[in-house]
Amino acid sequence: MKLDKFVVKPEPGKGVFLDLREIYYIEAEGDDCLFRTARKRRYRHIETLQEVEARLPSPPFFRIHRSYIVNLNRARELRARGERDSEIKLDPPVNKVLPVSRTAYTELRKLLGI
Fold it and tell me: Which of 4, 9, 19, 62 has its CA 20 to 30 A from that of 74?
């Protein structure tokens, strides 16, 4: 069965259902992750970013950096930041700008056909 939700586990024995379309990005924080939606609240999850990445559909979720996975459906801009660096800007109301690693930038350009 395929769900359009991800169960975020803030602690053992507890789960919060997040609609995949509501997730803007996921950030690594130690051995845990933080899920960011349009709401100001971040949702803590007790798995590593690597474990989360394996459970998310790709695309639209794409690992842009060792610390970030983004929902490409929530991306507004992909832009260069100097000669060798790039970044991705997310849709409002989040408007967060996240770094894109050089390796991920090459893969992302292939995925997007640019």
Answer: 9
Q: Is 88 helix (H, G, I), strand (E, B) or coil?
A: strand
DSSP 104: H
Q: What is the CATH number of the domain that holds 42?
A: 2.40.50.1020
Nearest to 61 by CA among 26, 93, 33: 26
Structure pTM? 0.89
Q: What are 48-100's pLDDT values in tens digits?
A: 999 999 999 988 999 999 999 999 999 999 888 777 788 999 999 998 999 99
Whole-angstrom distance, CA of residue 80 vs CA of residue 56: 27
111 touches 93 (CB < 8 A):
no
Domain count, the chain: 1
